[in-house]
Amino acid sequence: MKVLPFKIPKPEKEALVYQEDHEIIFYDKLHQHEEIQISYIMEGSGSLIVGDSINEYHPHDILIIGENIPHVFRSDAEAHPNSIMYTLFFTKKSFGKEFFNLTDLSGIQKFFDESEYGMKIKADEKKFHLFNNLKRQSKIERVATLLLLLNELTHAERQPLSSFVYQKKYTEDEGKRMNDVFQYAMDNFQDNISLDDIADIAFMSKNAFCRYFKKRTNKTFFQFLIEIRIEHACKLLYKDQDLSVSAISELCGFQNIANFNRKFKELKGITPTQYRQQTD
Predict the structure, then answer these.
(1) Over 70: is that where the pLDDT of 77 sits?
(2) Torsion sign, CA atoms 134, 139, 143, 148
(3) Engineered SS bond to 208: which of 2, 204, 217, 265, CB 3.0-4.6 Å?
(4) What is the pLDDT of residue 98?
């Protein structure tokens, strides 16, 4: 299977694709596709890299990933033995070039604008039922459900998944390189990763790698690595109440707790202790 670009398998004339994923882990290779993706997480949790950012996902999250946004799922199989996701794939031209430009649909244009950076929305009961009904619906009914969902999502409170998206389609070789870098960082974030280490993974010189990564994510590799560590710290603060903040700092690859506390507050706006109190 090619890492990038990734083709959503579908019949040639099928405008809307409905897909159910029942897995131990979701597809975990960096990929992009021309279709807009609207996914409902029925079961499972983990991390999702979209563009330049790493995010958490949990059951009942709705994830919107715009066209050609590089993304990769990292399921937490220890937290949830099963990962179940319901997804709709479609493009702006699925129903004709001008369909989504109709005056009747002008209210959902904001959705398309914001989908370019991805969005996360918490599902309420109405959105849950719209997704849950998809498996029993005909193709025509699913098109109607998509329009109802778009209307609901446009008016929902949402959180952007990314602040920067590299606006160029990755080649397959480039996609593999970025996938290897992300994979190595997520597998080894607890360790002291050096610039030599990560440049070797990318088969590049240190200077060339720094330019390459910054151009494609709008941040340095070490900024990205800190975000991975902080996201993992959030999971531990939530799941392992018996672990001290100091122990979590060490488990997440920080050399001292003062630096951990400072970086955590920079990214989350509160201290680790305050974050834990919010999740009690």
Answers:
(1) yes
(2) negative
(3) 204
(4) 93
Distance between CA atoms of 248 and 243, rounded to whole angstroms?
Answer: 7
156 neighbors 121 (Cβ within 8 angstroms) = yes
Closest by CA to 46, choosing from 165, 156, 186, 164, is 186
The pLDDT value recorded for residue 31 is 87
Q: Which residue has the tokens 């199989």?
A: 77
Cβ atoms of 85 and 26 within 8 Å: the answer is yes
Distance separating alpha carbons of residues 155 and 157, to the nearest angstrom: 7
Tokens found for residue 215: 């151009």
Nearest to 86 by CA among 43, 36, 39: 39
Determine the residue type at 274. Answer: Q
Q: Which one-letter amino acid corresponds to residue 210?
A: C
Rounded to whole angstroms, the maximal C-alpha distance in the chain is 57
Asked whether 198 and 31 are in contact (CB, 8 A), the reply is no
Q: What is the pTM of this model?
A: 0.84
Q: Report angle CA 61, 154, 160 to the nearest 5 degrees.
A: 55
Which residue's structure tokens are 């590089």?
70
Segment (H or E) for 74: strand 71-75
Paired sense of beta strands 46-50 and 83-90, if any = unpaired
